[in-house]
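note to self: dont lose this again. the chain is below, predicted strucutre after it. 227 aa total, dont forget to put it in the shared folder this time
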Amino acid sequence: MSLLGNAALAMWWDIAQEHRNEFEHWHSHEHFPERLSINGFLRASRWASADGSEGFFVMYELAAHEVLASPAYLAHLNAPSPWSTRMMPLHRQMVRTQCRVLASHGSGIAARVLTLRLTPPDDARATLRDEVDRLGRSLSGRPGLAGLHLLEHQPPDIAPTAEQRIRGGDRAADWVLLATGYEQAALSSLAEGELSPQRLMALGFREAVAAGVYVLRHTAAPKDVAA
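---
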C-alpha cells in the first residue's frame, strides 16, 4: 500500500539525549492522539536516527492538502497544551515541510526510512518528477525495500502559528524523497547508488541532501489512539 491520502507533513529535528525519554512519551501519548483527532489526519509515524544520534524524522499522512489550513488544525497550532509549550523549544534544527504527494510506490511504512531533501530547477521539475516516479516503480519491489515516495513542499496560506513562534521559526525542504525498507543493507546500497546525492545531482537536481536513515519508533492511525 502506498502513502495514505494526497498530502503529508514531513519533519526533521534533533532532541538532546537528556530530553529524549520525555519527548517520546509526550509525542506518543499526547501529541499523536491530539493530531490524529483532527479530521483528515490518517496516520502518524516517528522514526529515530539509526546511528543513535539525536535526530528524528516524523511524518503525518493527510487526506488532502487543505487539512493543513483547516480550522481544527489551526486551533491546535495556536493553542498548544502546557506540555507541548514546554516541549516545543526542545525541537532543534527543525525542518517542517507541508507537502503534496507527487508519487508513491510500495508500502508507506517500514522499519527503516532513508530520507533526502532535494531542490529541482524550476525548468526541470516535470522531467525530474517523471524520473523519480520511474525509479520508484523499479526500486520499490527490490529485496529489502518496501516503498519510494516523492513529496513537494506547498505551504498553506496561513499566518505563522503559536507553535512556530515558540520554536523560533522553521525551515522547509523543497522536495522530499523517502525510501522505506526492512533491511539496512538495502537502504545503504540505495543511499550509495541510485539515490546518492551525487547521482541525484547528476540527474539534474540543484541540491540533494541525504538527511539520514531512521528506525521506526511508533506509528498510529486515528483508531489506535481514539479515546
